Amino acid sequence: MSTITEIRSNEEWDAHLRSLAPSTLLVASFHAPWAAPCAQMATVLQALADEYSPTPTPPTTSWVSLNAEDLSDVSEQYDVTAVPFLVLLRNGQVVETVSGSSALKVRAAIEQHAKVDGAAAANAAAGGQTTQTGAAGEPIAPIAAAAPDPAQQKEELFKRLGDLVKAAPVMLFMKGTPGEPQCGFSRQLVAILREHGVKYGFFNILADDEVRQGLKEYADWPTYPQLWMKGELVGGLDIIKEELESDKDFFTEFSVKPSAAAA
Q1: Domain Thioredoxin: where (predicted)?
Q2: Both 117 and 228 in a single domain?
C-alpha cells in the first residue's frame, strides 16, 4: 500500500520531484481545507493508493498532497484554478490533469498512466508516439495517440450541464456551499433563498472547473452565482433582487413556507 505524503513547502516539492525515477508516475492532489469535496477526494485517493505497492524499484507510482493556497507558486505553475485538482506527472512533465471530484475520472486517469512503462514514457516524451512491434520484434508502425474530438467533448459537457440545471426545480450554481459560501454574492443569494423558504438544489462550481467554465458558455452568462428555475436561467444576485422588488410572490411556487393567505 502506498502512502500519500503531504508536501508543505516549495523546497519539499522540488526535492520530491528530483527524487523520482523517470518512469514513476507522480500523483499530485491539490486541495484546500475549506472545500468539502477535497475531503471526499482524499478518501478516494487513499483507496486508490492502497492498490499500488511502493516496493518495486523504481516504484510505479508516488502520491503527494498539496495545499493549493499555501503553495500558491506551485498551484500557479500547474494552473490550479479550482480544488480538488489532480496533476499526473512523469519525468517532470504533466501527462494529464483532472479538475473536480469525479472519482471515476480520477481512477481512469491514474490507471491509464500507471500502466505506461518507462520506455513508453520516454518514447512519448521524445515524439509523442508509440512503436508497435511484431512477433520477431521488428517495428510495424508508429501509433499516435488519438486526439480528443473537441466537438464531441463540448456536446457531452452541454448534455451534462443540461441535466444539472434541471436537477431540482430551483438550482443555485454558487462558489462554495450554502453552509460555507466562498464569495459575498453567493452568501447573499443563499440568505435570500432562506428568507423566502425556497427549497433548492445547489452545485459548488469551485469543485468542478469543467462545469465552472462550461456553464458560462452554456448559459451565456459570465458570472456566478447563477440561479436556475425549471431549467431556465433567471440570473445572478442583482436580477433576483429586481425580480423580488417587482413581484413579492416571485418565489411563492417554490417556497416551503405557508402563504399568508393560507395562514
Answers
A1: 1-115
A2: no
250 and 176 in one domain? yes
CATH for 77: 3.40.30.10
**How long a stretch of residues is the chain?**
263
**Residue 134 above 70 pLDDT?**
no
Which is nearest to 42 in space by CA: 61, 29, 27? Answer: 29
Total domain count, the chain: 2
Q: Say if residue 117 is in the same domain as residue 208.
A: no
Which amino acid does the sequence have at 155? Answer: E
The residues, any chain, with a CB within 8 Å of residue 171's CB and separated by 6 or more, are 164, 165, 200, 201, 202, 203, 227, 228, 229
Q: What is the mean pLDDT of the chain?
A: 84
Predicted confidence (pLDDT) per residue in 98-128, tens digit: 988 788 889 999 999 988 654 444 454 444 4
